[in-house]
Amino acid sequence: MSQPILMPKLGQSDEVAPIVKWRKRIGEAVNKGDILFEIETEKAVLEVESFYAGNLIKIVVPAGQAAPVNAIVAFLGKPGEKAPDVAAAPASAAATASPGVEHNSGGRHGGRPSRVENKDSALPSGGSGSVPTVAAPLAASAVPSKPGRLLISPRARALANTSCIDPSGIAGSGPDGRIVEKDVRAHLDARGYDKLRISPAAKALAAQQKVDILAVTGTGEGGRIMTEDIQRAMAERPKPLTLMRQTIARRLTQSVVTSPHFYVTVSVDMGDLLKLRQEAKTRGSDYSVTDFILEACIMTLQEVPEVNSSTDGQSVRWHASVHLGLATSRPDGLVVPVIRDAQKLTLVELHQAAKALAARARDGKLLPEEMSGSTFTVSNMGMLNVENFTAIINPGESAILAVSSTLPTPVARDGNVVVRPIMKITLASDHRLVDGAMAARFVNAIKTKLEDVSLWTRSI
Amino acid sequence: MPNHLNDLRPDFTKRKISCGSIQAYRFDATLADELAARHITKREAVDLLEDMLIVREFEEMIVKLRSGAYPACAGFEYRGPTHVSIGQEACSVGACSGIAAEDYITSTHRGHGDSVAKGCVAIRQMNAAALRARVPEATGTPEEIYEAALEDHIFRTAAELFGKEDGYCKGRGGSMHIADFSVGHLGANAIVGGGVPIATGAAWACRYLRNGRVAVSFAGDGAYSNGVVLESLNWAAQHQFTNMLAKAHSYGLPMIFAIQNNHYGMTGRADNEVAGVEFLARRAAGFDDRNMHAEVVNGMDVLAVREAMQRAAALCREGRGPCLLELSTYRYYGHSLSDPRNEYRTKDEEAAWKEVDPIDHYTREIVAARALTRKGVEALVEKVQARNARAAARAAKALEPKPADVLKYLYSDLTSAVVPAEFQKVEIVREKPVITRTNGQLTYRDALKEALLEEMLRDNRVVVYGEDVAEYGGAFKVTKGLLEAFGRERVFNSPISEAAICSTAVGSAMLGLRPVIELMYMDFALMSGDAIGNQAAKWHYMSGAKAEIAMVIRASVGGGKGYGGQHSQTLESVFAHIPGLYVVYPATPRDAKGLLKTAIRDNNPILFVESQLLYMTKGEVPEDPEFTIPLGLAEVKREGKDLSFIVWGPAMQDALKAADELAKDGVEAEVVDLRSLIPLDMETVLRSVRKTGKVVVGSQCVTTGSFMGEIIANIQHDAFDALDAPIQRVGARDTIAPQSHVLESAFLPNVGDFVAAARKIL
To answer: Which residue among A329, B424, B477, B645 is least packed, with the fewest CB closer than 10 Å?
Structure first.
């Protein structure tokens, strides 16, 4: 009996995952614990281990294609055994489906999902500015325009290539609708290809970059297509969104659509706390401003549990623990690592946990469970020199705190204008759970804590 | 003088047929007797011992190498075969010393002894100039140069076993295929019996060339159960070499069948098991009314072997060959070192044979005859050991062939562009056949005949034989008239022995002749599978380009005539798969002539395929005797721009007709005739494919596994982007050629199939 291998379920929101690479070939022996394939999730490339031993007798979902969670991606069996005739689940459609469409049909095929391990090397290290390599092999499945392989003869393709045109729109007259040479020639004639004027350099560039010169408007003399025209066409060419960006798009759109946001901003005078931090630093304790803000949030969330809650639209759930999400930027997008049970941590532990998670996030080494289950999120742009901003609530939470830069600001103090280091914090709340008064209470409670140095002298 | 016509009358008179008698173990002299009778000199007597010692030392080296116990080659790993002949030294040395240096031998997979002995004996007979030529870098006294030549011989033999570039065959042959053509060693043969017909062909060439030499085939008892060996015995004993058909040159083949009967064919026991005779020499009686001058000889006695061999060689040189010598001997080791021997024979048996060890026995003789003292023998042993060790050590360290040279020597670049003066003189025994053109046209059949005639007139080394090729002119009359022109020495009927026809051609080609042999139906080429695939194809390469195998095998395809499964096959794909062969298949009279002439002048073994469907086709054929067509040059037989037919053989004619048919729809089809599969002209094919983008590959081959797939693979590899449609294949159906006309029509491809295949992609 062949053993189906399923697409594992990886995190809270992963419904579909593309297979980046098969690490076993058809016919190859698979031991329990061997890495079978690699998948790309929203946040990382992960290695999937096999729970079973056998021979890989069939790959249902080849590399470069995506499959819904729990869908059969392959079969193990005895050497030479015939695998059941199973078509791949509608994966590429699912990969680009609109938010809210659920493909998770949990346990449909009975087998247990395989184990997943993080693959360290697949993501570029943080801050390098390089383009994420994970997106590249998936371009085909991520771009929805081509349902299958273009049916075209090698000769017709070669003619299209040397003519620098895109043959995908040409109607084929060959067997099974295959585009053959004469179809390409007819297309060229119909589009007045022989009247097209193009500089040799532009044509060479177009050939190299696969730019369809029939779609380029020439700006040279008499409409001649010049190198700049090709370069412009290249720049404008759509590029597939990375999976991470697709995820961001899906989740944040979901949040904005389902959660009615409102915003409450307060200014926090950070002067005393910064002084205290400086003193602590001279004593060898290196806390960041963020540490204090997070700690203040944690304390306040315990005081105001309504803000540490979630709703499905029907019921509300208060969370006993604070799982604090830290919105962290990466060159290619945004991830939210989570400090679990943050209320149990001392300030020192919190500092270490936040620092470690931030580093792992930048390096792309977060595990799925480190990126899910937050109950409240802080988005800190303090180091990015912003006066104020609002954030979008992480789906499944009731609010998010946007922390801006601490800037020298003239303020009224005892009837005088003085310059103080002021930091604005803005709470975005889901009005289904949080009302204005509660939000005001929440942000002011944070403000009070950050401005009350006596609160901190005990803990540092 | 008219052709010979048989006039056989029925004669059923009651009688008894006597098979005569065969002498066994007639030699009973001692070395002292032989010295006294001046049958041998003291020097020659010592040389015999030395050569046996060299052989044994050499083979013991192989045994020791396998266990790392040969200090001279410490650290060297020998990875070749270990078919040692220890115990059989008297056969190798005695036999080689009984013939002349320029005589020929073929040997076996257990042939180290034969190879070493043939070289040693030849070197001992060489004059100073010949010795210097063998070892040009050696200096010193004549005795020192002679010593250097002996050591060089051991070195080259060891180097060949070790797969080194300095080996006799440049490391391409190895232990089982070692050859040294410069001393008449035409090759050891790893096919049991494979060397016997080659020696027979060489003997036939000696007869033809009148060079006074003999050919000896060494082969074991196992080989004398093998079909081609029995064919060879018959071949060598044919009456036509000695009776009235031989006219002025009545001369039996100078061929000595030397059976090295060590009593085990691998492990099969010649005695009591896999043969029905106690003495294999009895085989001779089955093929020759005179029993071929057969003898059974004590193969453990070097003097007995030598004496019998001298007698046989003398008979051969008188034209009284062939002869057969059964040398009864013993193989001390197993088939190879992985054979423990105890599964099929007793220890006592081995001990009894070691009691008559050829070296121990002869050492006693030599001491008794005072040719050497005991001390002298010991010194000789040490000298041999030291010389062998030096040679082996050098061989172990010698240069390996370069990996890039793996294909080097597969084909010969040589041709008979210049015919040596002695072969330019051609005698017309009666009259040349008249070949007449009608409107400048010849049939395919006559075009072939004209090619044969012109080439036989040009070069006396070209000989023609096969079944029924003489008076009858071949089953399809291609050779009709050649016997009358050139006589039976150059055009003769062969026995129905396809394996021997092809293998004897290899042997005569090794001696410089250029045989053109005929296989009446290509199906029979499978009878000659070993001769064509293992012998003809391989010897140029396996000998490190020392052997030129200039031969043409004309094979006629019978498909399309309702001759059924065994007379209708188109098998060129099978032979195109065997490296070392050229495969040519002309489709027009012009190509038939031009290509056959080139094939005859080429030094490679060539399978030249003809079709009986084409013999009557007519076409213009140049009369110029220097008209030739290069091999490996496809020809565009019809130009077109819409589609390419890539075809050969009769399918080419079908493709031309299909092109006519398609032209009615305005389609311009191009027809490319490959003309030869090996060498293959992909240039011309690709040029056509790039032009048209649409390809139909066609032949009369059974489709699956045929050469058509090879063409298609090359096209998709080299001109993928030129293809505008999937490549179509038109071949015979994947079945056996049926006799029924209806079925055979369905089996073979036809014009309609080509048109349909084309329309599918137009």
So the answer is: B424
